[in-house]
Design a protein that fits this description.
The chain has 208 residues and is an alpha+beta fold. Helix content is 18%, strand content 39%. Strand 8 and strand 9 form a beta hairpin. The relative contact order is 0.18.
Amino acid sequence: MTIKDTPEEWEIRATETPFVGNKTSVRTDDVVMPDGSVVRRDYQVHPGSVAVLALDEEDRVLLINQYRHPVRHKLWEIPAGLLDVPGENPLHAAQRELYEEAHVKAEDWRVLTDVYTTPGGCDEAVRIFLARGLSDAEGERFAAEHEETDMAHARVPVEELVRRVLAGDVHNNCLVVGVLSLVAARGGDGLDALRPADAPWPARPFAS
């Protein structure tokens, strides 16, 4: 048995979209099960996201602190954002998010990992990049709005972040997956063996 996710699509007898929001929607599908029964499945339709684990020369990860209303928490996170434009190149989107949320640019970009955040109820796919060779971005800072106007920043050593993940102090999906993937990559073939920044992403195909 090969341990690798594979694309597959079961028969859908009927589908409807009972809710359409600003960025996402909710879809209801009547799906045929292996035994022939038909079961209704509701899920959020999402454009996809990118996130950036930005690592500086002192082995610190750049974090932002942002209010997240659905969970009623201010969470420590890594810079991230939606793929607002269909077919948008995820690397370009990640570079934009790092600039907008932290006013930082990076010289070296790799794909750290790809994840489905909650595949039982949402089709969101996230590509998490590793960004190194950090420096301050040029020009004016991006004009923040809404939750981002109250955003704080920090740079936290990798070892401390791992401890806080395992202690249950931080909960953001991309931060948890990103920092643990970083440590795993270092303990394996090394960071330079990570996939290139333009590696194919079947979950969200994009133009080069």
